Give the backbone structure.
Amino acid sequence: MSKDECVIEPVWLHAQEEAPPLLTDAAFVSFVELGRRGTGHLVRAKRVELKRSAETTGFHEAYFKGPMRFRARRNALVLHATDLDRPFLTYNAELLEMLNPQLERVLEERRAQSSISERVKWILKRLLVGSRPEIAAVARELGLSDRTLQRRIIDEGATFRQLLLEVRQELAHEYLNRPEMDVTEVAFLLGYEDANSFYRAFRTWEGTTPSQLRAALRRSETRQ
């Protein structure tokens, strides 16, 4: 930590291989989110350094609100030192002492309930933009081999193809509910080569067209 910045560089003590990118992202997001929620201030990263190659999603720039350095020599989150001096607005030591055991229990329960399928779908939503992610890309994010990930998905009664379809269906409804997004843009965000491919797939899922569903969603909102 220098006079004007604080560097957070995670060290995974028991790891035998390089930490999965998803784990690094989650660690950095947790630090920034804690600062934003606790202080009520939009904490912005001074910079973020990542060993991985640059991604086209724009997720990192949009979230961290600071410059990104990809293909860096280390994974590091660099914060402005002044942000670390901001007081937490809701800090209450006595209340925290009472709630901490319960909060830890809830956290453990949520970890136990988080299935591999849910984690795969979360990653797919991040990787889907403009491409169709393969299982190998998702496995790398989770720090697993392709075969191990495939086996764990099957053990939960699903397939990788099924999870990809579910992600596309969920995101299609979300995007079509945004009037500012046209169908061509939605097709790109869902990883289709063109709008016609998206139309054909959508009719297979829903039995209707994207435009008809969008109209139905608007009528529903109007009635509400």
Summary: The chain has a mean pLDDT of 81. The CA atoms of residues 49 and 76 lie 5 Å apart.
